[in-house]
Design a protein that fits this description.
The protein has a single domain, classed as TIM Barrel (Alpha-Beta Barrel). Helices cover 47% and strands 9% of the residues. The protein has a seven-stranded parallel β-sheet. Helix 9 links the parallel strand 4 and strand 5. Helix 3 packs across helix 4, helix 6 runs parallel beside helix 8 and helix 12 crosses helix 13. It is globular. It starts with a helix and ends in a 5-residue tail after the last helix.
């Protein structure tokens, strides 16, 4: 089977043969791995001044980084980072990735119209709005859902993408910013609508949120995503618990503790990686991943330790 086929089998909670699928939302350490700046760290402010040929050279380089990362670390999926406003640029990157990798990898874009935790500059105003302007916030959510669904239709039946990663963060490590009552008011209806809309077009959905999701797990799963990421142990999320309660309803992705990968001893990291594999591989659908991403400042050697252990112990017995 291709990487994509095994990834989809995991999303559908069907038996996977061979090695557990693996991917990362972002692999930022491209300078260390390939001597190239990650696409997200580049400045494209002169993009419109470039000739078509020069743009194509950049597109080739960007697509190559995504595919080279997947090949080097045996990822099953590629998350191409873009936005609703970048359709032409995104389409060209996706086309080039498919040209050089064919249908080997599951390819996804960001596609989450729901509210995330506001930043420090806007948090007080947003919190006040939730209590004083509920209708205004929800009308904006309805508009964004339709905008995202309309954007996604541009890729329908093109073969360029297979699904969406929904990357709005709802939770701190201690508790959700949107507790159960607020989640029902401001998130659930729109998260479910966009997931249902994507599914009607044949797309899969992976819902990402860091932090302590336990108080809103029932609501997250009820919205119907194909998978949950990142099952954050730094937020107190226990993979075995989530597996036992929800593993028959949703694929599980993540749970290798990023904090330990960055600051723990090699023994602590090894124990945590093996625990994640052991607990995850008992789920009907499981995809191996860090509890966030391979972010700037994380040791490449620690990520490669994680990959080495997966290569040794991440095989299903036939």
């Amino acid at each position: 089977m291709t990487h994509k086929e095994n990834f989809i089998r995991a999303l559908r909670r069907q038996p996977v043969s061979g090695k557990v699928p693996h991917f990362e939302l972002v692999f930022f350490l491209t300078m260390e791995a390939f001597g190239k700046v990650h696409p997200n760290h580049r400045n494209y402010y002169q993009w419109n001044q470039m000739s078509r040929h020069e743009q194509d050279l950049h597109i080739d380089d960007i697509a190559g980084i995504y595919v080279d990362t997947a090949k080097l670390y045996d990822h099953s999926a590629i998350f191409v980072h873009s936005s609703v406003a970048d359709h032409d640029f995104t389409g060209r990157v996706l086309n080039r990735i498919r040209e050089i990798s064919d249908d080997e990898y599951f390819i996804m874009l960001h596609g989450d119209p729901t509210y995330a935790i506001p930043d420090g500059d806007t948090m007080l105003d947003f919190t006040a709005q939730m209590y004083e302007e509920e209708d205004k916030l929800n009308e904006a959510s309805k508009r964004r859902v339709q905008e995202y669904l309309e954007w996604s239709r541009r890729f329908q039946n093109t073969g360029l993408i297979d699904g969406f990663a929904l990357c709005a963060d709802y939770c701190f490590n201690t508790a959700p910013f949107f507790g159960p009552e607020l989640f029902d008011k401001f998130i659930s209806p729109y998260l479910k609508d966009v997931i249902d809309g994507y599914r009607s077009m044949g797309y899969f959905t992976i819902k990402h949120t860091d932090g302590n999701i336990v108080p809103i797990l029932d609501q997250l799963v009820a919205c119907g995503p194909d998978a949950l990421h990142s099952l954050d142990p730094q937020g107190g999320v226990d993979l075995a618990m989530v597996r036992d309660r929800y593993g028959d309803k949703v694929c599980l992705i993540g749970n290798v503790n990023c904090g330990l990968l960055q600051t723990g001893t090699e023994e602590e990291c090894t124990d945590d990686i093996l625990r994640s594999l052991r607990d995850g591989m008992q789920a009907p659908g499981y995809i191996f991943s860090t509890s966030n991403c391979v972010y700037t400042g994380l040791s490449l050697a620690r990520y490669e330790l994680m990959v080495d252990l997966w290569n040794q112990f991440g095989y299903y017995r036939s």
